[in-house]
Amino acid sequence: MARYVLSDDEKHELGALADEFLAAHPVWTPLEHADGIRAEAERLPVGVRRFLVASRAAEDAVIVLGNLPVDEDLVPTPPSWRVAEKEAAAIREELVLLLTGSVLGEPFGWVNQQNGRLVHDVCPAKGHENSLTSASSRQQLTLHTEDVFHSCRGDYVALMCLRNPDAVGTTVALVESVEFPDAVRRVLHQERFRFFPDDSHNVVPRHSAENPSALEDRPHEVASVLFGPEEAPYLRIDADFTDAVPGDGEAEAALKEAAGLLADAADRVVLDPGDAVFIDNHRAVHGRDTFTPRYDGTDRWLKRTSLVRDLRRTYVRTKSRSRLLG
Predict the structure, then answer these.
(1) pLDDT category, 205, cuts 50, 70, 90?
(2) Whole-angstrom Cα distance, residue 162 to residue 164?
(3) What angle do CA 146, 189, 228 make, to 5 degrees?
(4) Which of 8, 219, 226, 296 could cross-link to 233 by cystine, CB 3.0-4.6 Å?
């Protein structure tokens, strides 16, 4: 894990940069401001920029920034992402995440997820405790590739902690930490697996987080679990939303063994307020511990966005110069 802790001077400099940008853009529409935010990222403290550029080049699987600015008078944790969106809660922290993340890649969103927002709120919501979404709490989120179903999924998933009083852990497993048996590896490199949208995506037909449809009714891609460089492969897996092509027992067994080996290799990253983690979505999978929500404004609260190294590949896929996939 690569880690950089900002000095107090760097923290103040970054906070001032965010305040200056927000003062010049009183209406917070990050999709419209994304190019400008990327330009402003060149004004980040030199040490922060050098660290992020070096981590990107080295393909570090887990990159952590510490001591980022978080409002000392932070509003209570919203009861849902919809409330956070309506109240424009913690937009300064959203901007901090976008400024730092823009050094690693281009932020993008999903038309069918959290109303197409560029930055999502991750907080527990009543009625979703046992869902397979980030609004859950009592349900373990198993290790997964973010947005596993899509060929243009992010290169990084970025999480910034605003509040985490119960030290809820983010679980992370690196593909390089697992020694897959040769027979299993061979199968995982073959296009014998189906990848489905998770429950947070509203996809046709008639599927939403509130009304999840059967996997068979969702659009999907067929591809391999391992791909890329043979000597250091990349990974694509989500035990809850990946299965073998029907009738392929060998692929089904390989998938189950791979998920087990990754679970055995998992570590925990506990984020404190002001920490941000950037997880390489090709080289690592991530999940989340269970916890008991209080719904009193003090629960765990993260900001999340996805970053792609080359935004043009999304333009090619959508045939539009848009940062929203759908």
Answers:
(1) low
(2) 7
(3) 65
(4) 226
